[in-house]
Amino acid sequence: MILKNINFELESGKFYTLLGASGSGKSTILNIIAGLTDASSGDIYLDGDRINDVPINKRDVHTVFQNYALLPHKNVFDNIAFPLKIRGVDKHETEKRVMEVLKMVRLTGYEHRRIQKLSGGQKQRVAIARAIINQPKVVLLDEPLSALDLKLRTEMQYELRALQQKLGITFVFVTHDQEEALAMSDWIFIINDGEIIQSGTPVDIYDEPINRFVATFIGESNIVSGIMIDDYLVEFNGKRFESVDGGMRKNEVVEVVIRPEDLRLTLPDEGKLLVSVKTQLFRGVHYEIIATDELGQEWMIHSTRRAIVGEVIGLDFDPEDIHIMRLNETEEDFDARIEEYVDEEEIEAGIINAIEEEMVVDDPKND
């Protein structure tokens, strides 16, 4: 995979996720940080020191692989102790530190267990214990939960996140699972075709996708064409709606995103949109409803209320539920627009404050 202008910084002690589909380049990035793959250009720095030419075993970085890469002929204790043995740590100190990390990963009493006798979740814990035994500055995790069943995978998400917060070590986690990334991360990098499409907190990524790819890759989305009439006013489906977005050109063609969970079922005459229910599926925590409006546009709705296939209903939503995307906007364009828009707001607020202060000074009552 050829990476394209990959450039980012990581803050110590945070949980970062590289999120993308198979072949997007996320594992290549991880391997370059680990030293498993050489970068043809560019530099990798760790605490200000360039580490491009530093051997794998000399980097203060440890990797947890998808298949865990455990030594099948050694027991749990010896697998976890392996990095200490390489560094020549004495026997007493090794035993002390191995027992400490076994307690952290809830495997106390398993030190003499053979690797072949462990479950998938237990093997994953051993791999993590081995990764943190030396307290590295960075732990790299290459889809370590992908082989686990759904229930165990969810449990391990909680455990892994709690362990990272307790240790304060920087984690860089690779996954193609959007829900996993949203649940575990402090910061997410969306990777596609060898480049970072968008980065931000899970809330930022979900609530403010910069383009159609991100909006459809992260969660479910209703995306329709629209026109930004003015700041805070957008037109779609032949109607104008208040929004909370601005900083675009007047009458600029945009794409409008409304998440399925932000659409509320109403009586036909009470909704902002009028739709006919096409299909309905029960998803456990909600009903997934597909409905069609007067223009033939399909809308997905997630609701705890049940609808009836064939009935006409209204859909309601709030201004903050409408998310505006510029066509083909990059992350740099998005950041620049938001920064410029915020600056304009601050300038306008400053002018208003100055005028108000001047009016107070000039008020005859003050003489």
From TrEMBL:
UniProt keyword annotation of Protease present: no
Keywords (A to Z) from UniProt: ATP-binding, Nucleotide-binding, Translocase, Transport
Keyword flag NADP: no
Domain ABC transporter positions: 1-218
Record's protein name: Spermidine/putrescine ABC transporter ATP-binding protein
GO cellular component, one term: ATP-binding cassette (ABC) transporter complex
Entry GO MF terms: ABC-type transporter activity; ATP binding; ATP hydrolysis activity
Pfam family, one: TOBE_2
Organism: Pseudolactococcus plantarum
Organism domain of life: Bacteria
